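ok so i was messing around last nite and threw this chain in just to see what happens. nothing serious, just curious
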Amino acid sequence: MRRLPASATLAMASLVSLGAQALMGVAMLHFFSPEATGRFAVIAQVAFFWVTLALAQGPLTFLADARQPPAQALRAVLRASLARWGLLLPLMGAAVWLGAMAQPLAVLGWAALLALLQMLWYLAQPWALRTAAPASAALARALPPVLALALAAGWSALHGGDGHGAIGLLIAAAGGYALGALWLLPTQGNAHADAAPAAQAPLQADRRSAWLRMAHTVMDAVTGTALLLVWQRLHGVAEASYLAVLLRLLGFMPTIVHAAWAQVLLARRETARARSLAIGLGAALATGLVGLAGAALLDMGLLAEGWRGLRPYILPLVLWQGSACLFAALSHRPFQQGQERRYSHLAIAFDALQLLVLALPLLGAAAWPPTIHLWWLAGVSSAGLMALSVWMAGN
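result:
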């Protein structure tokens, strides 16, 4: 009976975290200059790409590998992640140099610090999920973005958003990540929680090689980055903004499902196929309601006239992100059925298919207007996610 409160608590924490991050974006637009916001955004993006490659799905491995005691599993993931973080330093330095950024050494230094602290926070969340009470795991997820928002607001009130505004935003982000990293420190409460109620998934583990996990990570990162870059090149800045806004708005639901359901089941070593299907379908329905509400706001003229171009994007993206909800709700199952290697192979193939459909007009193989292109991309993505969901549910 404890799993539902734990999932509900983590779902609320995820909502708070996402809400704080959204408010951080609003604060940057309103209280900081475009130059300060742009400099911070570039450094934060470099750091995020750095930490994504350094972790190589380490938090997922930590949750899935139930054969090892949590402290031993954490040390293994942390050592490997820190090694990759260090090995990636020359690559990130080259990227900063090629970007011709002002004060490149300062940019690289801040990116390295943010990547390190962010990596520790990303590991602290599954550590708390596996070893601490649900309330503590929820705080590990929710408090860092709230602190970052408070620090950014305080800096703006004291120093303004011009001049050294970028420094203020960097300090705010670093402070939030540092707070989250504190959950890695051992406490008396860490000893109780890894005793899962019943090992319903005795096969649960992550047996993928480091190279396969890295390949999976790189393909996910490249696909996510290419989506908006290629869309902007093909269809313009306005169309890319429509896609970006709706992906952020509708994509929070599969994010919450993965964080508050799939990760909890991995931590508790439970399969819960029927409940997972119900959660995924319910989240897909909620995604549809969010899309319907957005369409209603547009039809009632409650949004600025410039956003009317969103209208044809809503339905295909609702189908896409609704399918992603079902996929997220079942994403724990391959690790519990000994199918994690095949899962990564299929996910990489799916990413490659998305990239192909995205790039077809760029390659001259199709001449699609934005709406037709979106229906092709969303249709292929939805079909692929549904096929993967059926495979995961059937194992």
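not much to say yet. Residues 3-191 form one domain.
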